[in-house]
Amino acid sequence: MTDKVAKLVIGDQTHEFPLLSGTVGPDVIDIRTLYAKTGMFTYDPGFTSTAACDSAITYIDGDKGQLLYRGYPIDQLSENASYIEVCYLLLYGELPNKTQLVEFDELVTRHTMVHEQMHYFYRGFRRDAHPMAIMTGVVGAMAAFYHDSTDITDPQQREIASIRMIAKMPTIAAMAYKYSVGQPFVYPRNDLDYASNFLHMCFSVPAENYEVNPTIAKAMDLIFTLHADHEQNASTSTVRLAGSSDANPFACIAAGVACLWGPAHGGANEAALNMLKEIGTVDRIPEFIARAKDKSDPFKLMGFGHRVYKNFDPRATVMQKTAKEVLDLLGVHNNPTLQVAQELEKIALEDPYFIERKLYPNVDFYSGIILEAIGFPTSMFTVLFSVARTVGWISQWKEMIGDPQKKIGRPRQLYDGSPARDYKQVDAR
Q1: pLDDT tens digit sequence for 269-279
Q2: pLDDT in tens, 2-32
Q3: Which of 393, 401, 363 has the alpha carbon at shortest distance from 237?
Q4: Annotated catalytic, 306?
Q5: Strand boundaries in 41-191, DSSP class E
Q6: pTM score, whole prediction
Q7: Which residue in 78, 351, 365, 424 has its CB near the most CB atoms, within 10 A?
């Protein structure tokens, strides 16, 4: 118990609330007894000043532009670790040794196939359905296929569900893509690494051999790593809220997928790329910059700034380098969209308007460019995000389920509707 307190004065009464300290980051005021003591709630739309849980998984310092997975800086992990290593770290709290990594990699690899009857599930969707609509439905339906890992009170079942989600999500995503383009599903291969296997399932066809380019696979692995977790964002909070009701893990992850679909969240890289295409050519950039500065114009520059980071997005710094490597490899420098992106980035880093507001290019600005260069349609961008973020969601879910302080989420409100009133018969209204 802390001896530090915060005092709240309401009228002639003073109430004390404990101050809690984490390992790093700001202290929090423990207001769990606020309603009992004062009869009042706090008002915090968007939960921008609210810590809804305690967690040991991810830490963000927005002022410093710092992102830590279990204490490890994202730049070190992206430079040295594979996505599978990062998955192990997020799930279990420590980096694996060589034996643990081999065993974990093998475990994930051996669970990448999905139940054959799930193939029929896809046929219920229209071919032109958005892949995220398919993902939401199929992930939620996993509870209908894997009954032996839905009991959240059983630690072994929770573990099996976690591995299944990490292993099968790329397969489900690749199938969504294949279905949308009218191509046959491609089964996973156990001889390929996580990222290479995903690319193989997306882009290979039965008619010819497909060789995964190592540079492209590395870029894909990096994108997965950079998006693996990001503290209590909207989709992660959704997973935790769904999980607080003791819903099965597949339903919880499906809820996260649905939330991620929003253009203000997981759809931001798709929105950023669509914006670049709307601008079209370099000569039109000044027009759109002027619109962005005009408060009366609803146009917004997508891919710039971040809700949490008040400095550079540390993921964007890594992604920028990767974007150059991929584009050099693919030789797409004459691409008009890329030219617009490069010029827009240059202007944003020099224009006082952007500098003063700290509107730096974020991870979404670069990831969309890379994914398009690899060959993914914009409709798949958020799907790829969901594949990467699955390990973060399931890690956060496992942490919450194991928390002895766990309670069902139940926010309150500031009611501004009509007070109590009497019903009138229809002819008297």
Answers
A1: 778 888 888 99
A2: 589 999 999 999 999 999 999 999 999 999 9
A3: 393
A4: yes
A5: 58-61, 66-69, 72-73
A6: 0.90
A7: 365
